[in-house]
């Protein structure tokens, strides 16, 4: 026969399981009772020492080295009773868990990690909710302790955490809004630089096209012609020899062929060039 206290405990555990349905949740009661609701995990690190009254619902299992290994991983509930060092509740898991630590309202807390995400008071019990892969709660059973903090301090802690989150969000939005004009200005500058570079290239190409239509040889024409006189035979040879861009060398070769300084040869899909013999009667 359950006493009223244990009936209240079962109600709290049921509520916690409903609130955390679909994720890993572990409820730890101050007297050592532990209830874990697990979904799609194959292991559970047993929290506490001297495990008794172990029950696993939903799967066959194997207990080895402080770990429960499950054969079925869809939905598993683990219930047992453990012992904890006086004033200390600790536990670790290989995955994130929602921990619910239930202690009497007369307890005072000296240390809580991670910071609680919520605090509920039901009757004379506290329900601390913590989220993470581990937890550590240090408490005292003396309601007159001069150190630590109680219910009011814990409520203040939760409020401070929520306030920090809200303030952090607004600060993030503020600085992001300030960065936006700077980013837009950088993008505009980049677009202007690209436009100027494109305009410069177009102007150079127009100037070069104008030079290609003249009968006179400029410095680049002569550089390309001299490379063929030194033994270059192909476009690639002339590019390596002169160091000029491939497109520039190609256009100069076409001009030299047009003016008769070079002769284009083709054989088997290959193209090469030879210096005209004799060269045209034009100054070089």
From TrEMBL:
GO biological process assignments: regulation of DNA-templated transcription
Classification via CDD domains: HTH_ARSR
Region (Disordered): 185-205
Record bears the keyword Cytoplasm: no
Ranges of biased composition (kind: Low complexity): 185-200
Keyword Plastid: no
Residues of the HTH iclR-type domain: 220-264
TM stretches of this protein: 154-175
UniProt KW keywords: Membrane, Transmembrane, Transmembrane helix
Superkingdom per UniProt: Archaea
Pfam families assigned to the protein according to its UniProt record, in alphabetical order: HTH_IclR (PF09339)
GO molecular function, one term: sequence-specific DNA binding
Gene3D superfamilies associated with the record: Winged helix-like DNA-binding domain superfamily/Winged helix DNA-binding domain
Name assigned to this protein: Transcriptional regulator, TrmB
Species name: Metallosphaera sedula (strain ATCC 51363 / DSM 5348 / JCM 9185 / NBRC 15509 / TH2)
């Amino acid at each position: 026969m359950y006493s009223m206290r244990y009936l209240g405990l079962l109600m709290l555990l049921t509520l916690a399981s409903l609130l955390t349905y679909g994720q890993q949740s572990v409820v730890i009661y101050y007297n050592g009772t532990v209830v874990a609701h697990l979904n799609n995990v194959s292991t559970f690190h047993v929290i506490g020492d001297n495990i008794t009254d172990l029950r696993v619902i939903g799967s066959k299992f194997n207990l080895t080295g402080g770990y429960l290994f499950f054969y079925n991983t869809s939905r598993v509930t683990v219930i047992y009773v453990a012992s904890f060092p006086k004033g200390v509740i600790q536990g670790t898991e290989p995955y994130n868990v929602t921990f619910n630590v239930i202690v009497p309202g007369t307890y005072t807390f000296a240390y809580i990690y991670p910071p609680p995400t919520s605090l509920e008071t039901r009757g004379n019990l506290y329900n601390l909710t913590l989220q993470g892969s581990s937890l550590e709660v240090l408490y005292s059973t003396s309601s007159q302790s001069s150190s630590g903090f109680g219910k009011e301090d814990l409520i203040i802690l939760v409020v401070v955490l929520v306030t920090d989150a809200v303030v952090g969000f607004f600060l993030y939005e503020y600085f992001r809004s300030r960065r936006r004009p700077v980013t837009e200005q950088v993008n505009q500058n980049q677009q202007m630089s690209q436009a100027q570079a494109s305009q410069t290239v177009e102007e150079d190409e127009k100037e070069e096209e104008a030079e290609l239509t003249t009968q006179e040889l400029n410095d680049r024409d002569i550089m390309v012609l001299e490379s063929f006189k030194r033994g270059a035979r192909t476009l690639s040879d002339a590019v390596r020899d002169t160091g000029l861009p491939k497109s520039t060398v190609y256009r100069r070769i076409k001009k030299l062929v047009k003016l008769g300084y070079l002769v284009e040869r083709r054989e088997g899909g290959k193209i090469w060039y030879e210096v005209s013999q004799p060269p045209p009667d034009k100054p070089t």
